[in-house]
Design goal:
The complex is a heterodimer of chains A (425) and B (231).
Chain A lengths: L1 H25 L5 H8 L5 E3 L5 E3 L4 H6 L7 H4 L20 H8 L2 H7 L9 H5 L19 H9 L2 H6 L6 H5 L5 H7 L9 H5 L19 H6 L3 H9 L1 H7 L8 H5 L19 H9 L2 H6 L6 H6 L2 H7 L8 H5 L19 H6 L24 H42 L6
Antiparallel strand pairs in A: 1-2
Chain B lengths: L2 H5 L2 E3 L3 H25 L4 H9 L2 H29 L1 H10 L3 H14 L14 H25 L1 H7 L2 H32 L9 H4 L1 E3 H7 L1 H9 L4
Antiparallel strand pairs in B: 1-2
Helix pairs in contact in B: 2-3, 2-4, 2-9, 4-5, 4-7, 7-9, 11-12
Classes of the chains: A mainly alpha (425), B mainly alpha (231).
Chain lengths: 425, 231
């Protein structure tokens, strides 16, 4: 018992000492308690020059639960005294130097430093103020499942879009919510699905037209490959991947076929890589005069495909029929000259055999969906030409024959009328 | 030929069997043309509407093949009838093309420009009918063979390389177009718009033509029937 009492006494002494020390410090820098004397009042507010009011209330509980809850107000508001006038700007860089540095170089950071900046997010724009939580805390604004809402709070805002003309279309950005990534995180609650920051980065976010941007064309495959590593491996070996890495800017990257914010499952009819839409997606480049000439690609691959039974069938929704990818592959497309290509002549029988189980070697003897020209398809060209001339000539002869017959009747009737006799038929 | 026909000055030109064959042919060719050309010209909006009407390309193909099989059956029946039956053999004789038909054709041209005094005298079938008949026959054979090749493409490619099938496809389509052109510009003119029959030669329905028409258009046949005592 005695021992216990002694302990209580010691504790009381220590507490008194601590309180005294705190009281001394208060004179120069106020503690949380002192700050809350005023800022704990829900009605405390300040009038702004534009007539609006700004609440100066701080929710203590929120603050205590925040990642900074263990620090004190003056850690951030270093110039705060009790009472005080307008305080200086809070800078996070004292502790978060790296983040501040990369933010300063970002699109947001650069914009924030300009004069006309308004509505540009600083640290607090995404992380909050007194209620900042750890990134991994599900209640954090930048928690994986919340980050989309945080970004969209601004990027869905039409007023902002109107103010900053270079901002991407808010509809386009908002389309993410319906994308396969958006639904996976929002509906299915999967934390593994890509959210804004996975592709765009966070503090150092840059517009896609800057080469350093994570979403610049040349960085897209690597960026998508962070999650889709197996696909990236295939893509790197493909003609498109090699072209892209070789600095050919026209060579397609992931987003050229799949879309960006609008990416949906391939089974979705609106997906550009849906079985029905693949021909149109590929032809976006392969039917383009500029691209086919620049890279000496075979011409009219799309229109000639659309004239085949496969093309017509796919066009009318028979997705069982072969589309581009059925024969050429998907991420692993190789030029037909490559012996490993599925459309290399040596492999054609096997490739056709995927759908035509009885495919004979004869499947490979001939050309497939080429431009009908003497060089590429002499036989078809010649037969077509023959029929075209033959049918045209026939039509002309028919018309001439009919004309001649009517002309003969007309002249005979006139002659008959003049001679007063009935003309011959 | 009955007395009533003679009394009204009518002559049988198409027997019931030929009329049925002709009608079946007409209907099937129309079906084949609609289903075939809608595929051949699948870029065209009307063609696309027709394909949708037919229930997509798959159903279109089924309709096309059913009509094709029926047409081939019709043609096969016609072939056997022409080669084996008494009536068929006689018709066949009348349809054989000879040197005379070329002369007739040239004479008709000369006659119409005023360089010949007389129009050629035709038998039951003149050069117009013969051209029509043989054109359609050759076309049907070609289009049937290529059609079968395309239908059983895996089988065909066990026998032929792919480029033969590419040609078969072109031949099939253009042969159809050719048949359509002949029917449209040649046959329809000859049996509907020609001044001697306008608005229509009724024989494809009634089987009969007037004896007077026969005398003017096919005088040799008229004479022959008269000799045989049928007129």
């Amino acid at each position: 018992m005695n021992r216990m009492r002694r302990h209580h006494l010691a504790a009381a002494v220590i507490a008194a000492a601590v309180l005294f020390a705190a009281g001394n410090a208060l004179a120069a820098t106020p503690g949380v308690g002192e700050c809350m004397d005023c800022h704990g009042d829900k009605t405390i507010e300040k009038s702004l020059p534009d007539g609006k009011t700004l609440s100066l209330y701080v929710d203590l509980q929120e603050y205590r639960q925040s990642v900074h809850g263990g620090t004190s107000c003056v850690t951030c508001h270093a110039d705060a005294k009790a009472p005080h006038d307008k305080l200086g700007k809070v800078s996070c860089s004292k502790c978060h130097g790296d983040a501040e540095k990369s933010y300063a170089g970002s699109a947001h950071g650069k914009k924030l430093r300009t004069k006309e900046a308004s509505g540009v997010p600083g640290c607090d724009g995404c992380h909050g103020r007194h209620d900042i939580r750890k990134v991994k805390d599900p209640a954090s604004r930048v928690f994986r499942l919340n980050i989309v809402a945080t970004c969209l709070a601004c990027h869905k805002d039409r007023a902002l879009e109107a103010r900053y003309h270079h901002l991407p279309d808010q509809k386009l950005i908002a389309a993410y919510e319906q994308s396969v990534h958006g639904l996976a995180s929002k509906k299915a609650g999967l934390t593994g699905s890509a959210v804004c920051s996975d592709c765009h980065g966070n503090h150092g976010i840059l517009p896609a037209d800057e080469p350093k941007s994570a979403t610049h064309r040349q960085n897209i495959p690597t960026m998508c490959g962070k999650c889709h590593a197996g696909i990236l491996e295939q893509y790197e070996k493909s003609v498109h991947g090699k072209g892209m890495r070789g600095g050919i800017a026209d060579s397609p990257v992931c987003t050229d076929c799949h879309g960006e914010h609008t990416i949906v499952r391939a089974s979705d009819p609106s997906s550009p890589v849906n079985l029905r839409n693949i021909p149109r997606t590929c032809s976006g480049c392969h039917e383009k005069e500029g691209i086919t000439s620049r890279y000496a690609l075979p011409k009219k691959r799309f229109s000639s495909y659309m004239d085949t039974f496969h093309g017509i069938a796919v066009e009318y929704g028979m997705t069982k029929a072969a589309n581009c990818a059925s024969c050429h592959g998907v991420h692993d497309i190789l030029p037909s000259s490559d012996p490993a290509s599925s459309v290399n002549r040596a492999n054609l029988q096997k490739t056709c055999g995927k759908c035509h189980p009885n495919a004979s070697p004869n499947f490979a003897k001939g050309v497939v969906h080429v431009e009908v020209s003497p060089k590429k398809a002499m036989g078809v060209f010649a037969v077509r030409l023959f029929y075209t001339i033959f049918i045209s000539a026939l039509v002309i002869l028919f018309v001439l024959h009919v004309g001649l017959e009517l002309y003969g009747r007309w002249t005979r009737r006139r002659a008959g009328a003049q001679s007063g006799k009935e003309g011959k038929p | 030929m009955s007395r009533a026909d003679l009394a009204s000055g009518q002559v049988i030109r198409m027997s019931l069997l030929f009329r049925v064959q002709h009608l079946v042919l007409t209907v099937l060719l129309l079906v084949l043309a609609v289903t075939g050309f809608s595929l051949m010209y699948h870029d065209n909006a009307l063609a696309q509407a027709i394909i949708r009407l037919e229930g997509g390309v798959h159903n279109r193909g089924i309709v096309h093949r059913i009509a094709a099989v029926l047409l081939m059956a019709n043609v096969a029946h016609h072939l056997f009838y022409m080669l084996l039956s008494r009536e068929g053999k006689r018709e066949f004789q009348d349809l054989i093309i000879g040197r005379r038909d070329i002369d007739d054709f040239l004479q008709s041209l000369r006659y119409n420009i005023g360089a010949a005094a007389e129009y050629p005298l035709f038998g039951k079938y003149g050069y117009k009918e013969k051209f029509q008949y043989w054109g359609a026959s050759v076309g049907t054979v070609l289009i049937s063979i290529t059609g079968f090749m395309l239908w059983a493409e895996e089988f065909s490619m066990r026998l032929f390389p792919k480029f033969v099938l590419d040609l078969a496809l072109v031949v099939h389509g253009y042969q159809g177009l050719l048949a359509f052109v002949i029917l449209f510009f040649w046959h329809l003119y000859n049996v509907h718009l020609h001044p001697s029959v306008f608005p229509m030669n009724p024989s494809w329905i009634t089987g009969k033509v007037s004896a007077e028409w026969l005398r003017r258009e096919h005088p040799l046949e008229y004479e022959k029937l008269k000799e045989e005592g049928l007129l």
